[in-house]
Amino acid sequence: MMTNRNRSGDGLGDGIAATRYFEHKKGTITNLTSWTELSKKQFSDRLIQIAGAFPIVEDQSNEDQKHVSVFVHGFNVSWTDAVTRYDQIKADLFDRRDLGQPILFTWPSNGSAAGYLPDREDARGSAEALAQEFTDLYTYLSGMQRLIVRTQDPAKACRAKVSVIAHSMGNYVVQKALAVAAKRLNSPQLLTLITQLAMIAADVDNDLFQKDKPLDGDGSLMANVCYRIAALYTGLDQVLGASAGLKHFGTRRLGRSGLADRTAVWDNVFDIDVSKVIKDENIHSSVFESPKALTLVEEILRGRDRGQLSVVASV
Predict the structure, then answer these.
(1) How many Cα atoms occupy the beta-carbon half-sphere of 299 within 13 Å?
(2) Is the distance from CB of 16 to CB of 108 less than 8 angstroms?
(3) Where are the strands (E) in the chain, listed by range?
(4) Assigned CATH for 2-314
(5) In the chain, how long is the greatest CA-to-CA distance?
(6) Backbone torsions φ then ψ of 91, nearest 5 degrees
(7) CA 149 to chain CA centroid, nearest Å
(8) 57 or 290: which carries more pLDDT confidence?
(9) Average pLDDT over the chain, rounded to whole?
(10) pLDDT band at 245 (very low <50, low <70, confident <90, very high)
(11) Nearest to 291 by CA among 301, 280, 278
C-alpha cells in the first residue's frame, strides 16, 4: 500500500500527508497495526523481489505475463473501505486468476455527493504524490532497459507488466498524475510506462482523449505514456449522473456516456459498455462485484484483442 493519508488512531485519516509505504502479511487488514511500514527503498526492493519471482514468458505467451498493478479508489471512500475493496480485488481478480501483485494507492477522499468539489480538490492534490511514484517507476524501468541492452542478458528482462486500475474519481487522480509525470519526463516515447490502464466508472470528462485537444493536454499525455487505455462505462450509473448534475463545468462523465467521439480519439484508447455484465445493485462499483465484469477486466489487463473483449462484454 502507498498512501498520502495522515495517521489517525489505528488507521488512516482524511488529511493529506507525506507518502508512506506499507506491506500487509497477516492480521485484520482494516487495522493499521496489521501493516508493516516500510521506507520507500524497502517498498521498492520488496516489489522488485516479488516481480523477480514471476516467470519469464515467451513472446507468443505475452498475455500470460504477470502484473504489478496499482489500484486507485474513488471519492468519498474511507481508508477502511479502500483496503476492504483492495482485499477483495486482490482475492477475486489477482490471486484467483493468477495475475500478479496489486498495490493500493489510497488518497484522502473525505467528500460526499454534496461535497463533490472539495473531493475533486483532494484528488488533484493527491495526484502530485502518485505522479512522483510514476516518475520513479519510469526511471527504474528505463535503467533496467539500458542494462538489458548493455549486457544482452535475457534473464534481466522485465518479468512484470505495469498496469493501473482506477475507479470513479480515482481516474481523475490518475489523469492528473500521469500528465504531471509525462511533463516531468519530457513526454517520453521510447518506453511505455503503463501497459494497461483500466478506467472503471471514470468520473472524468468524456472528451478527455479527443485528438483535437492540445498535444500538451492531459488526454494526449496519458495516451503517450500508456500502451492501451480502456474506459468501462454504463448508462445505468446513477452516481455519475448525480456527479454530472452537481456541477456546471466540463462535459458528460466518461464512465456513464463512454467516449464523446470514438472516431476521433488516440488509437490506443477505446471504451466498452459493461451494462450486460454487471449486477443490478450498486452499479457504480458493480464491475468489482460481478464475476463476468471481473473476467472482462482480467482480459483487458492481459492485453486481449479488442474484438475478443467485445465478445466478453456482450455475454
Answers:
(1) 18
(2) yes
(3) 2-8, 11-24, 35-38, 66-72, 100-106, 160-167, 194-200, 226-233, 269-273
(4) 3.40.50
(5) 57
(6) -70, -50
(7) 29
(8) 290
(9) 90
(10) low
(11) 278
- In this prediction, residue 154 has a pLDDT band, given cuts at 50, 70 and 90, of low
Q: In which band, very low, low, confident or very high, does the pLDDT at 141 lie, cut at 50, 70 and 90?
A: confident
Q: Are 72 and 203 in contact (CB under 8 A)?
A: no
Q: What is the dihedral of CA 113, 181, 133, 200, to 10 degrees?
A: 40
115 sits in which H/E element:
none
Q: What are the distances in angstroms from CA 118 to CA 123, 128, 257?
A: 9, 17, 24
Instruction: Give residue for cell 513472446.
Output: 59
Averaged pLDDT for residues 271-295: 95
Q: Map grid coordinates 512522483 to a residue.
A: 132
Distance CA 147, CA 150 (A): 5
Mean pLDDT of 278-290: 94
248: pLDDT confidence band, cut at 50, 70 and 90?
very low
What residue segments make up the domains of the chain, in order of their start?
2-314
